[in-house]
Amino acid sequence: MENKRGVLFVISGPSGVGKGTLRKELFKRMEGLTYSVSCTTRQPREGERDGVDYRFIDMETFMNYVKENKFLEWAKVHGNYYGTLESDVRKLLDEGHDIVLEIDVQGALQVKNKMPEAVLIFIMPPSEEELIKRLDRRGTENDRELEERIKNAKKEILESKKYDFIVVNDDLKKAVEELEKIFENVKNKMRKN
Ligand SMILES: Nc1ncnc2c1ncn2[C@@H]1O[C@H](COP(=O)(O)OP(=O)(O)OP(=O)(O)O)[C@@H](O)[C@H]1O
Ligand SMILES: Nc1nc2c(ncn2[C@@H]2O[C@H](COP(=O)(O)O)[C@@H](O)[C@H]2O)c(=O)[nH]1
């Protein structure tokens, strides 16, 4: 019998490794995926749109959501707060949609605790030097923020062994293809169960 419930995919990896880039490329190639837009207290970057890239909320609203248990997971990441609204995710999964969360390691492990069926995918940089180059080229952080993101990258990489899959984002095209294969295989396997 076909499994009507959607699959929950969680993508993590160090800041600047290319999670957002890979996710956008994957969405161009695969139909039927829904991106869960997170809440954050971070200030929008140039070009980021409220409700599309993030739901940009203030600290007071974020903490009210925490108190009201509205988050499936939440964490302080690189000095700002981020969280995934639980009602959105559960409703979409119940309706049969496959969901993609792009969240940090702390959040991913909270999700796995609450929903062990979630599929955790870690995006790995080809090297530390390349990660620094990518963050530098993106140019969205000041020197202090950049340093914090690089320091955190080392801790995050240590947690990658807790993930179901690891994809190295060296060549972008190859990494997207690998990601697509993982998504297809997981969905086929779940459909058979
Ligand atoms: N395979 C790749 N080769 C070279 N550059 C890449 C590759 N993948 C992504 N990039 C570039 O690296 C930079 C960081 O990518 P991106 O913003 O997608 O990272 P991220 O992991 O989503 O970061 P964050 O967690 O901070 O949001 C971007 O400028 C992007 O164009
Ligand atoms: N635990 C969560 N982490 C999240 C969420 N949304 C994004 N993130 C992670 O934060 C960092 C920094 O993102 P940036 O956009 O400021 O560069 C990155 O690792 C994201 O994956 C979330 O809802 N929960």
Automatic annotation (TrEMBL):
Which GO molecular-function terms appear in the entry?
A: ATP binding; GMP kinase activity
User: Is Nucleotide-binding a UniProt keyword of this protein?
Assistant: yes
This entry carries the following GO cellular component terms, namely:
cytosol
Q: What is its main location?
A: cytoplasm
List residues traversing the bilayer: none
The residues that the entry says bind ATP are G13, P14, S15, G16, V17, G18, K19, G20
Q: Which organism is it from?
A: Thermovirga lienii (strain ATCC BAA-1197 / DSM 17291 / Cas60314)
| Role | Essential for recycling GMP and indirectly, cGMP.
**What is the annotated localization of this protein?**
Cytoplasm
Asked whether the UniProt record includes RNA-binding among its keywords, one would answer: no
- Name of the encoding gene: gmk
Q: Which family does it belong to?
A: Belongs to the guanylate kinase family.
Query: What SMART domains is this protein classified in?
Result: GuKc (SM00072)
Instruction: Provide the protein name.
Output: Guanylate kinase
Q: What is its EC number?
A: 2.7.4.8
What domain of life? Answer: Bacteria
Q: Which residues form the Guanylate kinase-like domain?
A: 6-184
Q: What reaction(s) does this enzyme catalyze? A: GMP + ATP = GDP + ADP
Keyword line: ATP-binding, Cytoplasm, Kinase, Nucleotide-binding, Transferase
